[in-house]
Amino acid sequence: LLQVVRFLAARVHLGRATMRASQKDFDNAVKQVKLLKEDPGNEVKVKLYALYKQATEGSCNVPKPGVFDFINKVKWDAWNALGSLPKETARQNYVDLVSSLIPSSEASSRGEPGTQEKLLASEDVVVTSEDGITKIVFNRPTKKNAITTQMYQEITQALKTASKDNSAMTVFTGNGDYYSSGNDLTNFTSTPSGNIEEFAKRGADILRDFVDTFIDFPKPLVAVVNGPAVGISVTTLGLFDVVYASDKATFHTPFSHLGQTPEACSSYTFPKIMGPAKANEMLIFGKKLTAGEAYAQGLVTEVFPDSTLQKEVWARLKAYAKLPPNAMRISKSLIKSSSEREKLHAVNAEECTTLQARWLSEECIGAVTSFMSRKAKL
Ligand SMILES: CCCCC/C=C/C(=O)SCCNC(=O)CCNC(=O)[C@H](O)C(C)(C)COP(=O)(O)OP(=O)(O)OC[C@H]1O[C@@H](n2cnc3c(N)ncnc32)[C@H](O)[C@@H]1OP(=O)(O)O
Asked: Ligand 1 pocket test: which of 140, 142, 143, 144 has the largest number of ligand atoms within 8 Å of its C-beta?
């Protein structure tokens, strides 16, 4: 009981930071509880009861049950322990608690340690869940993990699913020697001829949705940059919470070389992270950074020797994934506040509109043609 009271008292505090759940969210959560496939256990049921009562009726207002009425006494104690917790906060806490119990349709539960569950059946983007971590892997090693149009959409979907599953965090990494060589330049040539405007519009829509999903991702987002990263696989790092890198990784944003312009909010996040002087050299002149330079400029959290990267990073992440998930999410929402997210969405929209026009430019078409005809490589 003491544990329950402590838990609820903690939620009083946390709840003040996030009063966001609407009545509709709450009603949905109530329905979801009835559909739970697994019994969440008595402790959780008591927490749910107390939060439900507080959310719907306010502070405990009924007499204390008799000493031998054990069950009702435990429930009453839990409700009473919420004191004057505001109804909206109780509603939010109820929704949070339910969402931590319910895996989304595609998602698995956290799973037992050591058991890995594959969540998305795609060859090029592999999504698994293990030890509280949803892992999204760029898996086109023979093409240096270049990102096809389909992969953007699969990643967007995987992130949306991961935002609701029971994992504590999501980690991106690459299979093979590259993290990712960025946008697959053949995306440009798989356009039905004569329809380049339509291609550019569709590309901008897909890109915008992709980046919006990173901006809104509510849980810790970590990149394990196992090798060179190019283009959009670099710019998205500005939207991650933590970036670990191999000492073999490099960071290259050759937008001007390709007749293109920055995306994934990097025109905003990079100057903020590393200061305009360094960001300009990367984003305008395409200066490639080593892992050490990226660390010095704040884009990378920590660099590991390539030989120990996997062992060290995954051990650390597994430990982090055991931290209380709601606390991590709430901390993230304080760090990336709603006004900051609003700004990021506006930057994303502007960058996508700019790129849509750029993709129709002679500079861009010439650069892609050169790559395709094997005349140019970065
Ligand atoms: C719709 C949303 C758009 C979002 C906007 C995004 C923008 C960006 O991401 S800009 C950055 C785009 N990326 C590039 O320009 C990289 C192009 N690739 C290269 O310059 C080189 O391949 C390399 C430096 C990344 C690696 O060189 P190397 O080690 O010599 O390996 P290969 O060139 O032989 O590559 C093996 C194989 O992979 C293919 N490939 C690699 N990267 C891409 C790519 N980005 N797009 C398409 N294909 C790529 C390469 O063509 C080789 O294929 P095969 O010849 O068939 O073996």
From this structure: 144
User: Ligand 1: which residue has its CA nearest to atom 48?
Assistant: 184
Could you tell me if 352 and 207 are in contact, meaning their C-beta atoms sit under 8 angstroms apart? yes
Which protein residue's CA is at the shortest distance from atom 45 of ligand 1? 184
User: Model-level pTM greater than 0.90?
Assistant: no
364 pocket-lining for ligand 1 (C-beta < 6 Å): no
Q: How far is the CA of 184 from the centre of ligand 1 (A)?
A: 6
* pLDDT tens by residue, the chain, 378 residues: 334 434 334 443 443 334 567 888 888 888 778 777 677 878 888 899 999 999 999 999 999 888 767 778 888 999 999 999 999 889 988 888 888 887 643 333 333 445 566 655 578 999 999 999 999 999 999 999 999 999 999 999 999 999 999 999 999 999 999 999 999 999 987 766 568 888 899 999 999 999 999 999 999 999 999 999 999 999 999 999 999 999 999 999 999 999 999 999 999 999 999 999 999 999 999 999 999 999 999 999 999 999 999 999 999 999 999 999 999 999 999 999 999 999 999 999 999 999 999 999 999 999 988 888 875 666
Q: Is 257 in the pocket of ligand 1 (CB under 6 A)?
A: no
- In Å, what is the CA distance from 95 to each residue of 26, 111, 160, 187? 6, 22, 18, 41
Residue 351 Cβ inside 6 Å of ligand 1? The answer reads no
Q: Which of 143, 348, 354, 364 to mutate to test the pocket of ligand 1 (most atoms within 8 A of CB)?
A: 143
